[in-house]
Fold this protein.
Amino acid sequence: MKSDEERSWAANRGYDDAAGIYYSYDSNVPNSKQVAVGDVVVVRADDWVAGWGIIEYVEETPNSRKEIRRCPSCRKTNHRHRIRALPSNICDSCGHVFSDKEVVTTFESVTNFRAYYANTWTEAARPVDFRDLAKIQLSQGTFNAIRPLDVSVLPDFLERISGRDVNLDSEISTEEIDSILGGHTEGIIRRRRGQRAFRFEMLMRFGERCAFSGVQPPQVLEAAHLYSFAKRPEHRRDGGLILRRDYHALFDAKLVAVNPETLKIEIAPRLFDYPTYRNLDGSALQIEPGQWPSLDLLADHYGQATRVFVSN
């Protein structure tokens, strides 16, 4: 993905992408026909790796009208914007320089695709440069595209992105895969758009108080869902906690969980190496009586987290 500020490719007007939700492309993009439900995908945004996920659904729209902008000299599409030079466009195929007014515009029929992966998305936990991603690509090119990755080194790369060990077989059960793949895309978008309202509702329910660490400044408090969005693409009033930002990130990464039977916090073994989080293990939730969230939803998250704990 390229943001408008970073994009120099000028043959089209870009794509409607949302890094943690879906990736948009069309039949003109190399390898567009190779993307399939169940594929593991790593997404690059500008010069950094944004994260990774599993393709749950591919939306296909045939006979779509696409604007193509061509060089007025050679009629090819291999031209780009120049930031500090005039005329503002240069064609890498023939070397011709030209203004925006001289661009030759045509329209072609393409198939548009949108690949969704939000339910399995893991945001990058640390900065990983695009050049490191290029090292595990099986094909290279001069512009962004869809490229196959070397599966022999992909697991190590996913662990580097995630900041923890990744075991797809143990983390995502067959039942969850069946539930996730191929559905709930509209619910995902609804959930993302309703996140602010959900946070406000959780703050009204719990106050400006992290469920793990007590009273905190509101700027660092976030609303954490307890359940799999693939199964429940909705905002449930009994389905969230207010957590400090770092605890929320660890909770979403399944490195911290709440035992639904004891209502005590448990952490993954790797977190014992960090004094900041070591004392969290075994502590009780800091929630007022009568404000407990759904124990069934806590159990749902706890079951997923304990599978992650095995390899972390």
